[in-house]
Amino acid sequence: MAMLEIKNVTRRFGDFSAVENVSLSIESGEFFTLLGPSGCGKTTILRMLAGFDLPDAGQILLDGKDMVDTPPEKRPVRTVFQNYALFPHMTVAQNVAFPLKMARIPAAVQRKQLQEALEQVHLTDKAAAYPHELSGGQKQRVALARGLVSRPRLLLLDEPLGALDAKLREEMQVDLINLQRDVGITFVFVTHAQVEALALSHRIAVMRAGKVEQVDEPSRLYSAPCNRFVADFIGHINLLDASVLQAAHGHHVHLDIAGLGEVLAPPHVGLASGGKGYFAIRPEQVRIGVHEEVRELKNHFSATVQQFLYRGDVTVYKVRLDNGMVLEALLPNAAPGRARLFEVGDTVSVGWRHDAGVFLVA
Amino acid sequence: MRRGWRLWAAALSVYAFLYLPLAVVVVYSFNDSRLNAEWIGFTLRWYEVLLHDREMLLAAGNSLFIALVSSLAATLLGTMAGMAMHRYRIRMLAFMVLTPVAMPEILLGVSLLLFFIQVLNLTLGMLSIVLAHITFSIGFVAVIVRARLAGVEESLFEAARDCGASQWQTFRHITLPLILPAVVAGGLMAFTLSIDDFVITFFTAGVGVQTLPLRIYSMIKIAVTPEVNAVSTLLMLLTLTLIVLASRFAPDALKGKA
Fold it and tell me: Considering the entire predicted model, what is its pTM?
């Protein structure tokens, strides 16, 4: 049995269903992320786990015990708040030791655990500082230390990196991964930033409008999204209107892309011939080049360069296919000094392997 | 800055209008003359007279006692009211707590008088004055405390519970330290309001007890003596000190920020 079981949980605010019949199970030691746009219900779930909000229906089981009747202060759960919520009248040490003090842990043990927690987040030299004297990243680490100091069963993180600038955010991501691995505490992380979710999580639940759309490992979520919403929400993706010509034919399915012709795609359970939907393919899976470079690929078409964006590490090309659809393709700039290979208006060939992309039922 | 002097002149005349009368009282309290007519010379005689005026000292003692008791009680109740107003956001609650602040004093005085005599059947005296002062001070304390609470992030209270603090521990370790400046400022305000209140005290004092403002009033019915100037100066000094202290503790609330 999973450590944390969320069973058919529903939470309504008036007519609005913030969380609708959600079930999730989270394993001990897992870094689990709730990902979705704002208003999708991810924060409401987090608040119900912390005990600040109660489900209207359903159960939340921690180690098999229903937590619904347990007030926040009695749950073995800590939260790292979005705005850190550090106590402004207490020093870093007092903030971090607060959960220990509330638990009436003997002073000597408190000192030891406080020291450990401060070391874990590299803040030993800031123990006597007040929150207003700290930078955003330091405040973030204090909040983490306060969350971890009393070894909770579960640490909830509510968009904790949201207020940090891009560079610091990347550093904190690495720190978070290491920290979680070292302490082995189960993390439930809430974010709307898909890059963050992919980088940090063992598993991700993608949410929309109070419902869970897909739960999977980051790589599965990225390469095999279950529907258009998930495909579109995680990373960039090309979506082409398509229908199924032949559902099962050996190792691939035959699709018809409107106005373009037949393409081969990886097999997919539950497909029926004639079914309508989208063919979804990531920009980095699309090869772009002169005809000779691309023609050995099973799926290849000619196109016109419409626009390109030089990003340093890669150049993003937007090309128009003969059927009028616009396709994005990434070209890594591995060779030095080659910022662009094609100009706007060039005729190029684009193609992709027969095992790339995925058909999504409409 | 060409328009500057007009603005300055206007401002100065307004301040002169406000503060000259007070200055006159202070200056004449040091005037070596029985009459408030012309300046004769500097003296501390009137302050010495004050020190030997037994009735005046008794009135001052009463005033201090009433101010102390009523401000302590108003601080406790007003803090609770301010917290309730912040937490429950019930319009009626704010209305009920704040009405005595906005109510004309004379109305409050008359209604308290009727209430004490006809409903409570209370003999007017120290107790009735203290109760009356508590009544009109609660609102002031509540407003200051609520303004302070409005500036405190709600997530701090949740964070405290999250860290394992019970409701009481959250109040004791988080809420109280954060609102303490406002509580102290509110208490000082209540003390100030009590010590120089005249109208409401006049209605609720009965015949037995005299406070400083009542004593001053009964003295000037005859004439404004230099002794009145002296006691007024002292009262002014005390009030000013308290107000300065109060604004030190709760700058946000008193500047109307928060």
Answer: 0.79
